[in-house]
TrEMBL record:
The chain crosses the membrane at residues 212-230, 250-268. Residues 99-297 form the Aminotransferase-like plant mobile domain. It holds the Pfam family PMD. InterPro entries: AminoTfrase-like_pln_mobile, MAIN-like. The keyword Transmembrane helix applies. It comes from the Eukaryota. It comes from Pisum sativum. This is Aminotransferase-like plant mobile domain-containing protein.
Amino acid sequence: MANSRVVRRRGADGRIPVRTLDRGASSSAAAAEPTGYPGGPYDTSLLVKYEHHVARHIWFGEERGPKKELKVAGHGLKLTSRVPLALPPQMESWVSRSGLASLQRTSLNKIDTNLVSAFVERWHLETSSFHMPFGEMSITLDDVACLLHLPIRGIFWSPQDVTEELAVELAVDYLGVSQGQAQSHVRSCRGSYYKLEWLYDIFVHHRAASSWAYATRAYLLMLVGSTIFADKTFTLVEARYLLLFRDLDGYSGYSWGAAALVTLYRYLGDASMYSCKQLGGYPTLLQCWIHEYFPTVGKEGRIGILLETVVFPER
């Protein structure tokens, strides 16, 4: 009796859409052979976007670009120069009640882009988890609370999108800039954004003028725009986040930890796609989570220490 064998044929995209048989093979053998991607999932009913996942392209030797790793938005060094050692008492009370004070000292000055890229390649947006050889893992709210000391209980409110016209109005009403200055700046950003450097200049100006409410809003917006709400542009923050700081006496009940985690999840999902070249969100959270659960990975692997004391050696 002639031996039957299965002939595997890949499509142009590397996927194995069907299984065909040599003459003499039984149809049951074809049914037993799963379809899917080589080196990836055979059952694609859950990971429906795997065709565009960076892992699929890496399997065939296709890197993201010449540098291979992602561009990562890390603002640790900038914050070192922009965050004062002590705020005026009038501002300190608002910042303390906000629940965001810990972000002033938790950013890493150096991000290991190779390490971060390696983990992003294992992230799948359909499951919101890293697919490891031993199973799935994910960053939890408890991790955020322990690593960043941000509140994870309270109001979860996602600010609405704003138009360029509304971004101008918000800057005039809550940042204390002129109509012309706000219009010129928003126009230069080509969208409903503010530049982090511009916000820092506003903070310095209003602090010198003792305009404490304006100075505090500019400072807090710059702070979250450089950390938990960092944009992939590395220089801008979405104007809609200013809505969170309209009432400086009534915004202390937000679940900042949940907002930080959702933002990072969203950017991890984007970065897991082959076409994406940048990672937004707070890379300090991701890298410290990696070192917490994989302490032997990388030269900087440490465990059981506070973020405020982390000083990574220069390579």
